[in-house]
Amino acid sequence: QEQLVESGGGLVQAGGSLRLSCAVSGRTSSTRAMAWFRQPPGKEREFVAVILWSSGSTRYAESVMDRFAISRDKAKNTVYLQMESLKPEDTAVYYCAASSVPTQFWSEYEAGARYGSWGQGTQVTVST
User: Fold this and answer.
1) Please, which residues have CB within 8 angstroms of residue 9's CB and are 6 or more apart in sequence?
2) Beta bridge partners of 24
3) Which pLDDT tens digit goes with each residue over 83-102?
4) Distance CA 37, CA 16 (A)
5) Residue 123 to residue 10: CA distance in whole angstroms
6) Which DSSP letter does residue 45 get?
7) What is the rounded distance in angstroms from the CA atom of residue 68 to the CA atom of residue 49?
C-alpha cells in the first residue's frame, strides 16, 4: 500500500495560483491512478482530477476544468495539482489518493471508494 504526503496548500487571493504536491512512497508498483479530491467546509468530499499513472491520461471535474492541471513525475513518484484562477469556492482541504484497482470506465475514478490510499490533506483557502 502506498503512503501519500501532500504539501503546497495555503492562503491565496482570488485569481491567484497554487501548486499542490503529493509524494508517494511504499508499494507503488501496483499504482494505476492518482487523484485529487477536496472537501469544502461543511460539504461532502468531491472529485477534482485523476491521472493514470502509466499513460498520463487525465480527467477533471467540470468545476475545475481549464483552471487546474494534474500531472505526475514518475522519477520522483510525485503527483501535482497546478491550480490557476482560484476562486473562493475552491476553498477546501485537498487530498491526494492512489488506486491500484483495474477500472473499465473513467467515471469510476470519480468515486472515492475506488482509492485505497489517502494522504492527510492540505488546506487551501482562497480569499476575496
Assistant:
1) 18, 20, 94, 122, 123, 124
2) 4
3) 999 999 999 999 999 999 88
4) 20
5) 6
6) -
7) 8
